[in-house]
Amino acid sequence: MKSEAMINPTGNLNLEDLLHDCRPLFMVHKNGRVHRFVGTDEVPPSVDSVTGVESKDVVIDSETGVYVRLYKPQNVDKVGVLVYIHGGGFCVQSASSLGYHNYLNNLSFKANMIVVSINYRNAPEYPLPIGYEDSWAAFKWVFVINHVESWLRDHADLSRVYMAGDSSGANIVHNFAKRVKKQGDETPESRVTYPLKGIVLINPYFWGTDRIGSEEKRIEPTGFNSLMDKVWMVACPESSGLDDPRINPEMDHELGDLGVDKILVTVAEFDILRDRGFYYKDLLLKSRWNGDIKVIETFGENHVFHLKKPDSSKAIELMNKIVEFLHS
């Protein structure tokens, strides 16, 4: 498929030519062309003039082009590591997108941690599970012994590794927490452990066939329920549907097998995905998982507001709470 950015999603369109209409995120034409409406404003790595945080891109797989963007605060010796996975419905955004670059630059500074921002290949050109597998390869790369990447070799304390992500990125993080546990359960001869202190799920993209909470009555007139339905099926066409355990934790018989002891979930009052965040906590507390989970809600805001208006008082407050969790 060919990818093409498009500024005006409501311009003159031949709707009969569309294979998938997932506006305001993207559209897929029958000829395979993809129009993306968000996340196309990419920026290069830099040294931030305000925070002093330095960033650089490192390709971890020359065949696939999968890379990570690293962020390193000034004057660090050994500090913790935050592995971050961007959102965008598995289909838009990248580690180079302006919003993520600015946000993670500030988060690296405030948390005084090295941040590893993973750039996986986007659906629909590369349908899931490719995005999961790309991200997992990058996650494992962080733990390479005697690392060839000097920032990780010289400054990363790999006993203090956290993962975080927003929206679909949070979905990937959740699924990785299970995968970490499975790695530790393998036989001693083949066991590879990836110590993970905790995970942060920001406005996580979980969904399901049945509507829960206030989803139906307060959101459906805007069409976002159907958008959530479509995005998953476009991103993961091999899926069994909206009750695939990767997108619907309620249907996951292994939900309690998380390889972390603490989880922070953040939700926003007007977010279509708000109720899923609270439901995720309820499901975990009923499972065999015995860790600590906390859900914090930001009132008066919508999905990923922290990226859209990062200088707002509520976005700053949210970042401070995340930093507190990372150092608790």
What does this protein look like?
The chain has 328 residues and is α/β, with parallel strands linked by helices. Helices cover 30% and strands 21% of the residues. The chain is built from nine helices and twelve strands. It has helices spanning 98-111, 130-142, 150-155, 168-184, 215-219, 224-235, 274-286, 305-308, 313-326, and strands at residues 3-5, 18-22, 26-29, 34-36, 54-59, 67-72, 79-85, 114-119, 156-166, 198-202, 262-268, 292-298. The protein has an eight-stranded mixed beta sheet with strand order 5-6-8-7-9-10-11-12, sandwiched between helices. Strands 1-4-3-2 form a four-stranded mixed beta sheet, with helices on one face. β5 and β6 (67-72) form a beta hairpin. The radius of gyration is 19 Å and the shape is globular. InterPro entries: AB_hydrolase_3, AB_hydrolase_fold, Carboxylest/Gibb_receptor, Lipase_GDXG_put_SER_AS. Pfam families: Abhydrolase_3. This is Alpha/beta hydrolase fold-3 domain-containing protein.
Please give a handful of descriptors for the protein shown.
328 residues; alpha/beta; eight-stranded mixed sheet; 12 strands; 30% helix; disordered N terminus; Lipase_GDXG_put_SER_AS; hydrolase activity; AB_hydrolase_fold
Tell me about the largest β-sheet.
Answer: 8 strands, mixed
Q: Estimate the strand proportion.
A: 15-25%
The ordered H/E elements are EEEEEEEHEHHEHEHHEHEHH
Strand order of the largest sheet: 5-6-8-7-9-10-11-12
> C-alpha Rg, in Å?
19 Å
The coarse overall form would be globular
Contiguous low-pLDDT stretches (5 residues minimum) are: 1-11
Decide which structural class fits the backbone. alpha/beta
